[in-house]
């Protein structure tokens, strides 16, 4: 099975967890949700992620703009701090305060890694030539707010959702070789 076929299978599995009928119910329900706003390292607005907590995970509704065309890694990071490069010391890379991937179960990185994956690993996204993308992604087994059943993102220091410069290879620990951090949104 090719990597593209495996990726497609993962996306289909996530979509089945939130069918159109289930999505309509979520849109009209009182399920916890929040909106996180992306900024690029040079300060441009880059859209938002509307996150809706469901019984089996979080539906992430991306509405992006000002993102370079092409494939990009998408991950949940451990700390909700999207301090841009201009406010960091010379030795720090853009959005480095967000720390590593959200990984409460101490796994290795990657959907295709036999010792993975991080709870914060999400499928790659592909942005068209106009730099805009609207897409739903499902983060299975996570909660927004404190939960005894699932790891949750809104703890004392929050979390972040990150778009990387390149595509995630779904195997390389610890980052998937997705490259520098391109845009960041705080989840608090």
Task: Produce a short descriptive summary.
This protein has 2 helices and 9 strands, in the order H-H-E-E-E-E-E-E-E-E-E. It is of the alpha+beta class.
Please explain how this structure is put together.
This protein has 188 residues and is an alpha+beta fold. It has two helices and nine strands; from the N terminus they run H-H-E-E-E-E-E-E-E-E-E. The chain has helices spanning 3-17, 20-27; strands spanning 33-40, 45-54, 57-64, 70-72, 74-77, 125-127, 133-140, 159-164, 181-187. The chain has a seven-stranded antiparallel beta sheet with strand order 5-8-9-1-2-3-7. The protein has a two-stranded antiparallel sheet with strand order 4-6. Strand 1 and strand 2 form a beta hairpin. 12% of the residues lie in helices and 30% in strands. It has one domain (3-187): Sandwich (Immunoglobulin-like), CATH 2.60.40.
Biggest sheet, spatial arrangement of strands: 5-8-9-1-2-3-7
CATH fold-level name:
Immunoglobulin-like
The H-level CATH homologous superfamily, spelled out, is Superoxide dismutase, copper/zinc binding domain
Query: Which radius of gyration do the C-alpha atoms yield?
Result: 16 Å
Keywords:
two-stranded antiparallel sheet, single chain, 2 helices, alpha+beta, Immunoglobulin-like, 188 residues
């Amino acid at each position: 099975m090719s990597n593209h076929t495996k990726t497609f299978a993962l996306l289909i599995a996530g979509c089945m967890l939130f069918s159109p009928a289930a999505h309509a119910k979520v849109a009209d329900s009182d399920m916890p949700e929040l909106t996180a706003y992306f900024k690029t390292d040079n300060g441009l607005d880059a859209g938002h992620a509307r996150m809706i907590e469901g019984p089996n995970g979080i539906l992430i509704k991306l509405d992006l703009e000002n993102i370079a065309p092409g494939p990009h890694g998408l991950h949940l990071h451990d700390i909700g701090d999207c301090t841009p490069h201009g406010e960091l010391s010379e030795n720090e890379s853009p959005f480095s305060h967000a720390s590593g991937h959200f990984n409460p179960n101490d796994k290795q990185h990657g959907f295709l890694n036999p010792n993975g994956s991080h709870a914060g690993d999400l499928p790659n996204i592909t942005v068209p030539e106009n730099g805009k993308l609207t897409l739903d992604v499902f983060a299975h087994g996570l909660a927004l707010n404190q939960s005894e059943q699932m790891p949750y993102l809104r703890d004392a220091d929050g979390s972040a959702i990150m778009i990387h410069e390149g595509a995630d290879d779904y195997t390389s620990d610890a980052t998937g070789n997705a490259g520098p951090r391109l845009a960041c949104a705080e989840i608090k």
